[in-house]
Amino acid sequence: MLTNQIQAGMSAEKEGTALAKPEAILFDWDGTLVDSHPVLAAAMNHTLEFYGREPWTYEQWQAWLGLSARDAFPKEFGEDWQQARTIYLDAYGKLHLEKIQLLEGATELITMLANESVPLAVVSNKTGHYLRAEAAHFGWQDTFSALVGSGDSQRDKPATDPVYDAMRPMDLQPGKTTWFIGDNDVDVACGRAAECTTILVGEGYPDSDPDHRVRGLVALRNLILEKLKSD
Question: Containing domain of residue 48, as a range?
């Protein structure tokens, strides 16, 4: 059943005819443009170890991905959530710039969009100052109109607050000509709530029902180029 759902989603990659031409693009960060999962996992397991807990299984880790720290830590650590969040963020801060990597095709994709003068922003549930440090690490601090992370808006994804905050410097409102691109169901839910066109990258989350799905950033770049060149 899962395989059939994924194949059905992938078939849309070849169509894409109903997608609006993008006038602005919002990207998720972790798992969409960068591979920070090993850093995130190491920081979380360090936190769990502090509390005498076992490292997480892959399934537990998947359930955590996409949630913001200020939403997820109270659910996982209860009354200890603030201390746990501090331990986690300290561990992450020591590791992230050393280990984080761009995903395949990310550089070519963002360079192409910058050359096409498409307004770009990032809407992430990563803590804001870490997000901006990583963007600067890759030389992208001036490429995006806004880099909105957890804690920068009144609420985090899947609430729409960060979408509006990210688009305010563009002097645009979200809608179908705004593409919201991410790698999990939190991104799809957020983009849909803001009435954006939702694009899911990768083969995960087959029940998210985005407007479109692509296998990776190379396919995404080809799709966007096709739409930008259409009348």
Answer: 37-99
Helix (H) or strand (E) holding 187: helix 185-193
Give 147's Cβ-side CA count (13 Å radius): 18
Same domain, 116 and 27: yes
What is the helix (H) or strand (E) element at residue 208, kind and residue range? none
Residue 63, C-beta contacts closer than 8 angstroms, at least 6 positions apart: none
The string of pLDDT tens digits covering residues 81-116 is 999 999 988 998 898 998 899 999 999 999 999 999
3-state secondary structure of 25: strand
Bridge partner residues of 182 (DSSP):
200
Q: For residue range 39-73, what is the model confidence (pLDDT) as tens digits?
A: 888 889 999 999 999 998 867 776 776 677 777 89
Whole-prediction pTM = 0.82
Nearest-angstrom CA–CA distance, 39 and 30: 11
Does 166 lie in the same domain as 86?
no
